[in-house]
Amino acid sequence: MPLLQVKDVYMKFGGVMAIAGVSFDIHEGEILALIGPNGSGKTTMFNLICGVFSPYSGHILFRDCQITGLKPYQICRKGIGRTFQIAKPFPKMTVLENVMVGSIYGKKNSYPLKKAREMAMSVIHSMGMEQKWDTPVTELTLPYKKRLELCKAIATEPHMLLLDEVMGGLNPSEVEEMIKLLKRIQSNGVTLLFVEHLMRAVMGLAERMVVLNHGAKIAEGSPVEVVEDLQVIEAYLGKENQFVKG
Amino acid sequence: MKSIYVLVVTLAVGLMCCLPIFLGPHSLHIVILTLISLIVATSWNILLLTHQISLGHAGFFGVGAYTCGALCEKFMPIVPLDILVGGIIAALFAVILGVICCRMTVWAIAIVTLAFAEVLKVLVIMVPSIADGAEGIRVPPIFGGVGYEKIACFYLVLFVSLLSLTCAYAIRKSKLYYAFAAVHDDEEAAGMLGVNPLKFKIIAFSVSAFMTGVAGGIFAHYISFIDPYTVFGLHISLDAQIMPLVGGLYTILGPVIGSFVLTSAGEVFRIYFGSGYLIAYGCILVAFVLFLPEGIVGWAQRLARR
Ligand SMILES: Nc1ncnc2c1ncn2[C@@H]1O[C@H](COP(=O)(O)OP(=O)(O)OP(=O)(O)O)[C@@H](O)[C@H]1O
Ligand SMILES: [Mg+2]
Q: Across the interface, which of A91, A93, A106 has its CB nearest the CB of B193?
């Protein structure tokens, strides 16, 4: 049984079909990459899984249980964590306090403060942010902002993490570190679904990938298969050569 | 550092307790009114924690006051139970308002709450059967109107305002703070971390309204005569936000400093400028918004950090 099943999902914005009949599965423990050109509907797909939008039609099942129509906070408590493409830290709080929001409220029964603080602290350690735990988030640099997004999502103890361009804007050595972090997260038993433009990261991490174009799925398979897929090369690789280079 | 805070707080409370020895009846009256507006300002500041700005706290204040008035008139004086009932009814109104407001922007919330208070005022004025209409009603004094009534009232109000500050402090130190702050900063991100924004916005609304309703009830008993223009008046809603603004938004001490600074400034100006005092008062407010937007407490914290 797949962990997450997306079944023939459609999403409309006004008259525009942003997601048109997409289906795919994610299995327990795997790393799946969701790629596609700008505006192809990747973030929208994330928003559908997380309950920010409900689909125009179609179903999304998590552990064989219908999650379409649930609110984001309910989906979080079912065990799906998510980072935002543009980091959304809570500016009035420190790093630790930001992460604590997730560790207090991320599960069905909220943790007491003391336990939540310890847990947030250990997440911060495991993500290599221990030197920044007391920094106001407005003073963080971009790589740390990206890591904070990860910390917050992990603090909710998810079974599955949706990562929206966590490598965007990082330099090559920071990308390497991020890849290591993600592998470590996966080795702890978390299933990963990630959106990424950086081909090097996609090829290095993904076990399988799904390609979207104009809201439709145009390819799916192992990275090698997908890269060989002609249709993809026409739709995507041909236009975006930076994608091939990386 | 912590022991210094404890010392300062103890000294301040001790000093407040001694006030009736030094102050004449008029000054004591001003202090009581200041403390009542402190409670309202503190509760307004709690609502702000979830990024909801109310322009209608007079509505909750009036509901508290009129509940006391009506209960004492129709049944019998059941102080202090009627004050609590007033708070609870105000909180029920807040739950309804909270549900209406939960998907609105701050500005829309400000307008809806303003309308709420005005509608209640007009209702009470227009429908005499509710509570004697525009003429107002008598409310029996809490302590039976004996000689030391005012001093007793002072201690009651002091006690309740300390309670309201304790409540604000408890929220700051509890899990609620994390949910409030997350909802304040980014509802979408808060939701992704398991926080139900709707729930916490409504909690903030009802806690805030309860405290304001209680303040209204105490006010009614203390003044012993209420009419819609006084207890539903716009000045109550305005004070509720101007005091935290001057003292320091999002801080616990802000409403305390703000209420004392503004009422003392108001009194001094009235003595020196006569009827023109409102102009001077207004100028001070504009100056604060322009030059010290973080309020007195925020400014002091910034100095201390250097
Ligand atoms: N809230 C919204 N309202 C209206 N249209 C939207 C909304 N969100 C996304 N869209 C539209 O849906 C389409 C898909 O957008 P989406 O953000 O999912 O793309 P993406 O694949 O994440 O792109 P990028 O790589 O630039 O992040 C775009 O045409 C976008 O304009
Ligand atoms: Mg996107």
A: A106
Lookup: tokens for A191: 């299933």
Cα–Cα distance, B57 to B90 (Å, whole number): 10
Contact across the interface for B193 and A77, Cβ inside 8 Å: no
Q: Map tokens 């991490």 to a residue.
A: A205
The separation between CA A47 and the C-alpha centre of its own chain, rounded to angstroms, equals 10
Using alpha carbons only, give the angle A54, A58, A64 rounded to the nearest 5 degrees.
95
Q: What is residue B224's three-state secondary structure? A: coil
Q: Considering only CB atoms, which chain B residues are within 8 Å of A76?
A: 191-194
**Minimum-distance CB partner of B188 among A52, A93, A110:** A52
**B172, amino acid identity:** R
pTM for the predicted model, two decimal places: 0.93
> Is the CB of A54 within 6 Å of ligand 1?
no
Q: Which residue in this structure is represented by tokens 């289906």?
A: A23
**ipTM here:** 0.91
Helix %, strand %, coil % for chain B, to 5?
Answer: 80, 0, 20
For chain B, count helices (H), then strands (E). 15, 2
The pLDDT profile of chain B, 306 residues, written as one tens digit per residue, is 788 889 999 999 999 999 999 999 999 999 999 999 999 999 999 999 999 999 999 999 999 999 999 998 888 778 789 999 999 999 999 999 999 998 899 999 999 999 999 999 999 999 877 777 778 899 999 887 777 889 999 999 999 999 999 999 999 999 999 999 999 999 999 999 999 999 999 999 999 999 999 999 999 999 999 999 999 999 999 999 999 999 999 999 999 999 999 998 888 888 888 777 778 778 888 888 889 888 999 999 889 887
Does domain A1-79+162-246 bear CATH number 3.40.50.300? Answer: yes
Which sequence spans correspond to the domains of chain A? 1-79+162-246, 86-157
* A48 Cβ closer than 6 Å to some ligand 1 atom: no
